[in-house]
Design a protein that fits this description.
The chain is of the alpha/beta class and about 475 residues long. The protein has a single domain (about 10-470), classed as Glycosidases (TIM Barrel). It has 15 helices and 12 strands. Helix 14 (about 390-410) links the parallel strand 9 (about 370-375) and strand 10. The longest helix is centred in the middle third of the chain and has 26 residues, at about 205-230. The structure holds 6-O-phosphono-beta-D-glucopyranose (BG6). 6-O-phosphono-beta-D-glucopyranose binds near residues 374, 428 and 431.
């Protein structure tokens, strides 16, 4: 049982992302984005990973992002539910293509700005601080087809124009910002992560790391602009977190775990410390990668973030042989199955202590405040005959992770807040399913897109309300 008290100003809330919640994919002048092209079903992975080029929609496929959970029209009802739980923070993202539908325009789309202003004003009405990601797995498709997305350095200009527009237009409404969601995921899921598709025989590693360099420059410039627009703005990087444990104490396994850790942390090392870490040179040499840099890049990268945000669902395992045959199904980051952990219905290891370990690692390394911006259990929920959803498994998962978070605070780590993932059920990013639910609020919609979209409070809704009201003291 944790004895740690959460700080008085600790931010409690939940997280959604535009691409998995809004829908309204062609409304309000919005342009098509990468996620709009990713179908549900057998072709999903090939498109997500950039192996299959998908530049137009097909009539024989279903695209879950197109309507998602219709947050676009229901945001007032959804934010009211968050307020009822006592949220003081709500993480969401802005769809870049609502603000700049093609991505390379000089003037923003007024309807897109009006939509987000209305969302953020609704939050303010209830005293909820928005925490806003500028790019959560959605690059405007025009930038993919015309420029090759983040392969092109021109993306830096397009992204910083978009970021400046957001900082200026939402000044006074938003002060917490994240640049790129789970920046390390572009290595594993390049199309959904960064709009990258590959040609036959191309050196994918070279393309991905060069694209990442452009994102890092864009992120550092956006951080500088945010501070120029309003010194009160706080900008964070965002990592798909979860430490790699060595599968055994065999030195070769420990060495591989260290390599995997570095691969994971490389980009946020740059964002948090202001320069490529020393190990980048050997990593690039071993992979045969040459990063093309502009002369000003090293100076630009010195604009470091104010805080380090991360998602945490599970820890990972590495051995000298990553193809040892016991690979875990957990997410898109390859890991070995940890025999000491129970797993979710989707095979993701459940490891609350791993959260404390991850937090200690991140704080030891960066000495910057942390923000846990995604965590939760994807599970199948059943509505019983009384119309209730008894999601005790979710409560139990969250309870143990909140305890671990409290323990890490007790270790001396400054944690700004906690936004559990998918606070209202939404479309799963990996599988495109609705049946993989994370929410405190159930949404009546199935994997084929059928359902009334009606919102229904689950048992965890009342539990989380109590947790927030007691500032994390009452986890029963
Ligand atoms: C993170 C993403 O990778 O994990 C979210 O930032 C995603 O967008 C979440 O939804 C959970 O993954 P999934 O595949 O269960 O939705």
């Amino acid at each position: 049982m944790s004895i740690t008290r959460f700080p008085e100003d600790f931010l409690w809330g939940g997280a959604l992302a535009a691409n998995q919640a809004e829908g309204g994919y062609r409304e309000g002048g919005k342009g098509l984005t990468t996620v709009d092209m990713i179908p549900h079903g057998p072709n999903r992975m090939a498109v997500k990973l950039g192996q299959e080029k998908r530049f137009s929609l097909r009539s024989d496929e279903y695209y879950p992002s197109h309507d998602a959970i219709d947050f676009y029209h229901r945001y007032k009802e959804d934010i009211a539910l968050m307020a009822e739980m006592g949220f003081t923070v709500f993480r969401t993202s802005i769809a870049w293509s609502r603000i700049y539908p093609r991505g390379d325009e000089h003037e923003p789309n007024a309807e897109g700005i009006a939509f987000y202003r209305a969302v953020f004003e609704e939050c303010k009405k209830y005293g909820i601080d928005p925490l806003v990601t500028l790019c959560h797995f959605d690059v405007p498709m025009h930038l993919v087809t015309e420029y090759g997305s983040w392969r092109s350095r021109q993306m830096v200009e397009f992204f910083t124009r978009y970021a400046r527009t957001c900082f200026e237009q939402f000044d006074g409404l938003v002060k917490y910002w994240l640049t790129f969601n789970e920046i390390n995921i572009m290595l594993h899921s390049p199309f959904s992560g960064a709009g990258l598709v590959f040609e036959e025989g191309e050196d994918k590693e070279q393309v991905k790391y060069q694209a990442a360099h452009h994102e890092l420059v864009a992120s550092a410039l956006a951080t500088r602009i945010a501070h120029e627009v309003n010194p009160r703005n706080q900008v964070g990087c965002m990592l798909a977190g979860g430490n790699f444990y060595p599968y055994s104490c065999k030195p070769e396994d420990v060495w591989m775990a260290l390599q995997k850790e570095r691969e994971n942390l490389l980009f946020i090392d740059v964002q948090a410390r202001g320069a490529y870490p020393s190990y980048a040179a050997s990593l690039f040499r071993d992979k045969g990668i040459q990063i093309v840099k502009a002369p000003e890049d090293d100076d630009i990268l010195k604009n470091t973030v104010d805080f380090v945000s991360f998602s945490y669902y599970a820890s990972r395992c590495a051995s000298a042989d990553m193809n040892a045959g016991n690979t875990s199904a957990a997410n898109v980051v390859k890991s070995l199955k940890n025999p000491h952990l129970a797993v979710s219905e989707w095979g993701w290891g459940i490891d609350p202590l791993g959260l404390r370990i991850t937090m200690n690692t991140l704080y030891d390394r960066y000495q910057k405040p942390l923000f846990l911006v995604e965590n939760g259990l994807g599970a199948v929920d059943k509505v019983n005959d009384a119309g209730e959803i008894e999601d005790d498994y979710r409560i139990s998962y969250l309870r143990e992770h909140i305890r671990a978070m409290g323990d890490a605070i007790g270790d001396g780590i400054p944690l700004m807040g906690y936004t559990s993932w998918g606070c209202i059920d939404l479309v799963a990013a990996s599988t495109g399913e609705m049946s993989k639910r994370y929410g405190f609020v159930h949404v009546d919609r199935d994997d084929a897109g059928k359902g009334t979209l009606e919102r229904r409070r689950k048992k965890s809704f009342w539990w989380y309300k109590k947790v927030i009201a007691s500032n994390g003291e009452d986890l029963t």
